[in-house]
Amino acid sequence: MDRIEAGRQVLRELMGEAFLEARDATRNDFNAAVQDYADDVCFGTVWSRPGIDRKTRSILNIAMLTALGRPNQLRSHIEGAINNGCTKDELREILLHTAVYAGLPAAVDAFRVAEEILRKKEML
Amino acid sequence: MDRIEAGRQVLRELMGEAFLEARDATRNDFNAAVQDYADDVCFGTVWSRPGIDRKTRSILNIAMLTALGRPNQLRSHIEGAINNGCTKDELREILLHTAVYAGLPAAVDAFRVAEEILRKKEML
Amino acid sequence: MDRIEAGRQVLRELMGEAFLEARDATRNDFNAAVQDYADDVCFGTVWSRPGIDRKTRSILNIAMLTALGRPNQLRSHIEGAINNGCTKDELREILLHTAVYAGLPAAVDAFRVAEEILRKKEML
Amino acid sequence: MDRIEAGRQVLRELMGEAFLEARDATRNDFNAAVQDYADDVCFGTVWSRPGIDRKTRSILNIAMLTALGRPNQLRSHIEGAINNGCTKDELREILLHTAVYAGLPAAVDAFRVAEEILRKKEML
Amino acid sequence: MDRIEAGRQVLRELMGEAFLEARDATRNDFNAAVQDYADDVCFGTVWSRPGIDRKTRSILNIAMLTALGRPNQLRSHIEGAINNGCTKDELREILLHTAVYAGLPAAVDAFRVAEEILRKKEML
Amino acid sequence: MDRIEAGRQVLRELMGEAFLEARDATRNDFNAAVQDYADDVCFGTVWSRPGIDRKTRSILNIAMLTALGRPNQLRSHIEGAINNGCTKDELREILLHTAVYAGLPAAVDAFRVAEEILRKKEML
């Protein structure tokens, strides 16, 4: 399987078929390149590597995206973490941990995003 | 045990007695407040919480400090991660993962710091 | 008084009882930990220290939150600064000063947030 | 012509008279200082310098504002870049390039902003 | 007095004649533009404005440069703050405050820079 | 040619054979993955795309790396920009432009890095 296809499969397993279809539905001649880059490089090359599991990759993203202030992708990766087995208690501890290292504002913003996802998944 | 003492104990277990002594040796009337804050809040309050283990806390820090560009603390937490059971292969995968999300420059800077620690620990 | 209670009292004095009640109303088993961390560490430990006054702490936050791009907390701390005696003219000078050091985009975003608060307080 | 007037002229040429009028309509005694700073320093001093052309200045801004996560100004400068001759293909390549250096989340956020502008200009 | 001259005078009062001479000695045809921009825009325009005093401007910079991770300029502005009347105790409180909002790593890096300056000024 | 080879060729053309050899000499079982990622993704996939030329890619990097505070890679890409036809005057204008958008500290740090490269290339 080529890397774009491998990446789409990882994304499908991480976020579900509906997510992948919704993203494909937004595809146009401008953004096709970044969708392909995400599938090829992000999911098809890096996520596909062995050595650390998907739950670990998801929680690394939660920490990074909280520190970097990227709520759109944080939303997706909190959802992906939960799909990969991260519990609500683990999520809370991860976000509280970021308060020390990335600062309280970063953590507070991330808690707000996490609560959206937890409500959507009827876990709160 | 009060929180500062609890924090010192966590730091001792994470980095070793020599690290703690070296840090204490730098204490003066100006920086005592931030050393106490670190022991109290960071190690004695947040690190001491159950729910996620120390290896997980260490790798979250590796990701955040790489994204935030803080090599001094990244150095300590890479060392702490290794002390907490993170293998060289896992470390490589964590840092490569940051290249996608925090950008290649952030990851390249982190690989350089990691190699210092691995050489110091005769793992490279 | 324990640190959480001390912190709640600082927050009450800074932002008003209504703000504290509104925040408490959002409390749940997921976010309780970060609300307690904020009250304990942020307000009950650091804000409670002598040495610099509350207006100074507020304006330091305005500068940092502008540089870091955290509009949600910037909104609160601009309001807190005004409650702590910061005038509209001082606020303007603080934000213009950030344009040099954090860049014009950061300052422009902060001016927009400040105008929301000033209008809410009928100062603009 | 003094620098504020020179800056207003650059902004008029970059974004159009309607943009300048809309911005002037928001002027009040609080934000006048930052509007004047933008016209004086940003457009009337730096943008007015020879040596690199306006299209180049616009694309440098696209890269910086993507990396810094400033969507409001990114919106304006993507529009300014298009006004200065940047094609849709060039814009795509610039944003894809940021994915490597500023990380995929930064680039994905920027692609979303760019699509808004391209739709507004009926180029997508 | 034109703005560059006004700015040089502010810089002279803030950091001393020796600092200004040392900086002038590094001037060449490449960096003259940024030295002039600093004198003109930063010191001659923004710092010269009334409304907030120089000590306040200095401490805002300490907070921002700590959050942004810019140790070179942090060094200068900590020195400038001390020259403008900031005491060692106030400096400590400012930096500890940043630990909450910008994260502990940012504050620890800043404490290290501050200790360099305090030792240089025989205040530690 | 596979993407890693294509990327090595781009890097060779951008920075010279000596740079590539020096980098290869540092290769080990830990960092091979990030060297391959750089060659594959950065140079072999993104830099290899048509649509914007190499000089443009280099100057976008100068702007981003200045804003992000990554001096190690900024050093390389300033050198690459000069190799790709960027003049000293253009480099000055690019860096001065960043002062407005990324803040004066970011620009001052970048001017210092640029002067190192210009001296190394006997252009200053």
From TrEMBL, chains A, B, C, D, E, F:
One Pfam family cited in the UniProt record for this chain: CMD
Enzyme class: lyase
UniProt GO molecular function: 4-carboxymuconolactone decarboxylase activity; peroxiredoxin activity
EC number: 4.1.1.44
The organism's place on the tree of life at top rank: Bacteria
UniProt keyword list: Lyase
Carboxymuconolactone decarboxylase-like domain: residues covered: 33-116
Classification via PANTHER family: 4-CARBOXYMUCONOLACTONE DECARBOXYLASE FAMILY PROTEIN, CARBOXYMUCONOLACTONE DECARBOXYLASE-LIKE DOMAIN-CONTAINING PROTEIN
Protein name: 4-carboxymuconolactone decarboxylase
Species for this entry: Paracoccus denitrificans (strain Pd 1222)
